[in-house]
Write a structure and sequence with these properties.
With 111 residues, this protein is mainly alpha-helical. It is built from four helices and no strands. The chain has helices at residues 2-29, 34-49, 60-81, 89-107. The longest helix is centred in the N-terminal third of the chain and has 28 residues, at 2-29.
Length: 111
């Protein structure tokens, strides 16, 4: 159950980071209103808080290394669903490799 909760926090953090960054992108690159920038900034602050909900025994470095791998996969999915860029075989292989790394870094039992 602890792993499921941990993965949930990683996914929420990823959605907040990508979503907040996307709103800032829309504001600065596509000329949307300042409210996009404000909303994006607030969501990015929440992104910074969510990783602190990971288990107490998880170090900052491991949490952020693991998050990086999950971020890769979420970014591929975001691009597919929002930007309509269908991932190719290489994207999928790279994402799978990142997830294997995530599993080893964060969840491999240590003595």
């Amino acid at each position: 159950m602890e792993i499921v909760k941990s993965l949930f926090y990683f996914i929420i953090a990823g959605i907040f980071e990508i979503g907040g960054g996307y709103l800032i992108w829309l504001w600065l690159r596509e000329g949307r209103g300042i409210l996009y920038g404000i909303a994006g900034s607030i969501i990015l602050i929440l992104y910074g808080i969510v990783p602190t909900l990971q288990p107490q025994n998880a170090s900052f470095g491991r949490v952020y290394a693991t998050y990086g791998g999950i971020f890769i996969v979420l970014s591929i999915l975001w691009g597919w669903q929002v930007d309509k860029v269908v991932p190719d075989k290489i994207d999928l292989v790279g994402g799978a490799i990142a997830l294997v790394g995530v599993g080893i870094i964060m969840y491999y039992p240590r003595g």
